[in-house]
Amino acid sequence: MTAAQKNLLKDGLYVFVSIIVAYIIVKTGIVHATLATAKQYAILGSFIAGISFASIFTVAPATVVLAELGRSHPPLLVAAVGAVGAVLGDLVIFRFMRNRVGLHLAFLFNRSKSRLLKKIFKRRALKVLLPVLGALIIASPLPDELGLAFMGISNIKTPTFIPLSYGMNFLGILVIAYVARASAL
Question: Where are the transmembrane segments (predicted)?
């Protein structure tokens, strides 16, 4: 087994174990209890919900908490602080995506027999399109992993990623907070 295959297997195992741990955490109610407590404190709650907003496993309860906070606290505050938390969550995922997943995709890609697939990924337009698609996914209430994978594959640098992630998460959370506030009227 090559080093790339071992790394792919090891990372696959990490993902599998993290899914099991996330399932256990959700089933025991730890996530819901933490987020419910966080709703009482605008800044801490926004920050914790922001971190949770970045992951596929916690995006749904985080969106609910951010919406509730947006109803009872200034939406700009909720979005500003929540986006800081989301950037931290995104940064962890982004570093993993960029450092490991990109290597795995390159390994799998080089083993591919498809010339068309290779031509598509060598296009300059795709290198511009991937970060844009990634940013749009981050701004949406969809889980950030796919958007972060696109950004990782495009080799975007961390100093560029951080303000982009903050801005897109800020906009996404702000929309959630204002929609929640408008629906409460």
Answer: 12-30, 42-64, 76-97, 125-142, 162-180
DSSP 122: T
Average pLDDT, stretch 143-171?
85
Look at the chain and count its residues: 185
For the chain, the helix, strand and coil percentages under 3-state DSSP, each to the nearest 5: 85, 0, 15
pLDDT average, residue stretch 81-88: 96
Instruction: Give the 3-state secondary structure of residue 185.
Output: coil
Instruction: Tell me the C-alpha distance between 184 and 41, whole Å.
Output: 19
**CA-to-CA dists, residue 135 to 3, 81, 145, 158, 159, angstroms:** 32, 19, 11, 14, 15
Model confidence pTM above 0.85: no
Give the single-character DSSP code of 55.
Answer: S
Distance separating alpha carbons of residues 42 and 32, to the nearest angstrom: 16
Backbone phi and psi for residue 2, each to the nearest 5 degrees, phi listed first: -75, 165
Are 81 and 49 in contact by the 8 Å Cβ rule? The answer is no
- Is residue 113 very low, low, confident or very high in pLDDT (cuts 50, 70, 90)? low
